[in-house]
Design a protein that fits this description.
Blueprint (H helix, E strand, L loop, with lengths): L1 E7 L18 E6 L10 H11 L5 E4 L9 H13 L3 E4 L4 E2 L9 H35 L13 H5 L2 H11 L4 H8 L3 H11 L3
Parallel strand pairs: 1-2, 1-3, 3-4
Antiparallel strand pairs: 4-5
């Protein structure tokens, strides 16, 4: 199946610009939600994920590459995962495609993705540096004390965190640790801790 996917941030925004030339597509999906929501957790995005899991999706087309994720890192992960599964990603603006007509990686697109990858690493380093600077400034002002020595986070407090609740939902839905790690961007140790506290181990 070939899918054309678009996303706008609110119901008041129009997606017409993103869904032109729809001839030849089996489905045209539009999510009206915040870009901060991971692709596979969006209403239409989750439908596309089911197609992938069932081996039905052959190609996904988007107007711009940022429709695939909430950050450069997320976009790269989606790009990598779909490429490894032999699913064609076609981006109209800029004109990118992960696989050519023979099913081989597109050289130009690989170059562009490589540049994006470098940018994402740079982006992470900037964020990390800003965090360190913020902590240093807070220490100077006497506002940052770090975690209290011997402080222990209770089980209920840990499991009640919004992010942890999402992990629990995925575990209860039968997702594997690897799948949850990719979707949530959390570590294996976090998922193991959740499973242990829930008595799944």
């Amino acid at each position: 199946m070939k899918v054309l996917y678009s996303r706008v941030s609110s119901t008041s925004q129009q997606e017409d610009r993103q869904i032109q030339d729809i001839v030849g597509f089996d489905y045209v999906f539009t999510d009206k939600c915040s870009g901060l929501i991971p692709l596979w957790e969006r209403p239409k995005g989750s439908q596309i994920k089911k197609m992938i899991d069932n081996g039905q999706l052959k190609q996904i087309t988007v107007h711009s590459i940022d429709r695939l994720g909430r950050s450069t890192i997320d976009v790269l992960q989606v790009w990598k995962d779909l490429t490894e599964q032999g699913i064609t990603i076609e981006c109209r603006n800029p004109n990118l495609r992960n696989l050519d007509d023979t099913g081989r990686p597109d050289i130009f697109s690989e170059l562009m993705i490589s540049i994006l990858s470098t940018m994402s690493k740079f982006e992470k380093e900037i964020i990390f540096d800003r965090q360190k600077e913020g902590i240093q400034v807070a220490r100077i002002k006497g506002k940052y004390k770090g975690r209290t020595v011997q402080s222990v986070e209770t089980k209920d407090k840990f499991l009640s965190k919004p992010r942890i609740k999402k992990v629990i939902e995925y575990l209860n839905s039968g997702y594997s640790q690897q799948e949850i790690t990719k979707i949530m961007g959390c570590s294996y140790s976090t998922i193991q801790k959740v499973k242990m506290l829930l008595g799944h181990l």
